Amino acid sequence: MKPTSDATAAARSMPLREAYAAAERYIRQQEGMFHSVSMFLPPDRRVAMRVAFAFFRQADNMVDQDKLSLDEFQAWRQMALRPSYEQADPVLAAWADVRERYAIEPRHVNDLLDGIEMDATPRRYATLDELKDYCYHVAGTVGLLSLKLLHLAPGVTFDDAAPQAVELCTALQLTNILRDVGDDLSAGRIYLPGDELAAVGLKYSDIEARVYDERFRALMGHLAGITRQLYASSWSGLSLLSQTGRYVAGAGGIYYRAVLDELERREYNVFGETVRFSMVRKLWVMLMGWPQIVWPNARRQS
After folding, report:
1. What is the pLDDT of residues 141-189, one digit of tens each?
2. Quick one: which of 255, 237, 102 has its CA closest to 166?
3. Three-class secondary structure assignment of 115-165
4. Is 209 helix (H, G, I), strand (E, B) or coil?
5. What does pTM read for this prediction?
6. Which helix (H) or strand (E) is 75 found in, with range?
7. Residue 47: strand, helix, or coil
8. What whole-number distance in Å separates Cα of residue 192 and Cα of residue 219?
9. Whole-angstrom distance, CA of residue 118 vs CA of residue 176
10. How far apart are CA 207 and CA 213, in angstroms?
11. For 108, how many CA atoms within 13 A lie in the half-sphere containing its CB?
């Protein structure tokens, strides 16, 4: 129960209404496509989901854009876990309120923040399993947290939907990793696992030298195939969501599978221009993929 002392009341410098409005502005600036797709949700869930994604994006930006040191991030992390009545940052205040209202599991929040912390001290991943573990922390947890904010289909429990939510979000993160090899390299990061590099005769020094040859294309094609399998095995999980929840989750899957298709079309040349879709193309991708969202069990996805 919240304390009611004058000191506690004064600790929150911004009313929740203003905090929610600030989180809405933040996510509108950061995630244009998500902001549009979230319109499918009922008003209460829409607001909560936008706040959640404002928090996810803020946490990510702390490392990627603000370049916080590990100590600085850990201090921010401790603040982020405090209750709403102790928050001064508007996004954190709104997120803490959502976290409390929807009984978000603290362990999933901590797992997510563990993943962001991994990026605060960039490392390389020796095996594909290590990379998948990273993907769980930075993306699979987002799927788990989002499940609390999306309506599930009648009779479906959180535990029923959780495994495929993690798989789908892992596929989204792997797609991001494949798309952003060049951009990440410029930031001093290489996510491609060492064992997969060695399997085709490449080393990290080759990636640093931006070697683009048959070996690299084989590596990327192999990892893209693994990612496609995750999309395929997770896709029927959309049927475990309510209709509106299915639209939101499915839109992300459709978009990022189209990114994977474009990478393949470009023969995985990720050291040049990064794959980015115009708004017109995004809308076209959504239109073409919409039947797969509405009827996720109609056929096997690949």
Report:
1. 999 999 999 889 999 999 999 999 999 999 999 999 999 999 999 888 9
2. 237
3. HHHHHHCCCCCCCHHHHHHHHHHHHHHHHHHHHCCCCECCCCCHHHHHHHH
4. coil
5. 0.89
6. helix 70-80
7. helix
8. 9
9. 16
10. 11
11. 19
What's the residue count for the chain? Answer: 302
Residue with tokens 């079309």: 265
Amino acid, res. 281: R
DSSP H helices in 150-242: 158-179, 181-186, 194-199, 204-208, 214-235
Token digits of residue 277: 């879709």
Distance linking the first and last C-alpha atoms of the chain: 48
pLDDT digits (tens, 9 = 90+) for 65-89: 777 888 899 999 999 999 988 998 9
The domain limits of the chain are 14-104, 122-302
Point out which residues pair with 141 in neighbouring strands.
none
Exposed e or buried b per residue across 144-153, where buried means at least 16 C-beta atoms within 10 angstroms of its C-beta: bbbbbbbbbe
Report how far residue 33's alpha carbon sits from residue 71's, in angstroms, rounded to the nearest whole number: 33
- Cα–Cα distances (Å) from 57 to 128, 205, 251, 301, in that order, read 25, 31, 18, 29
Q: In this structure, are residues 218 and 225 in contact, taking their beta carbons and an 8 Å threshold?
A: no
CATH 1.10.600.10 given to domain 122-302: yes
At position 236, the amino acid (one-letter code) is: S
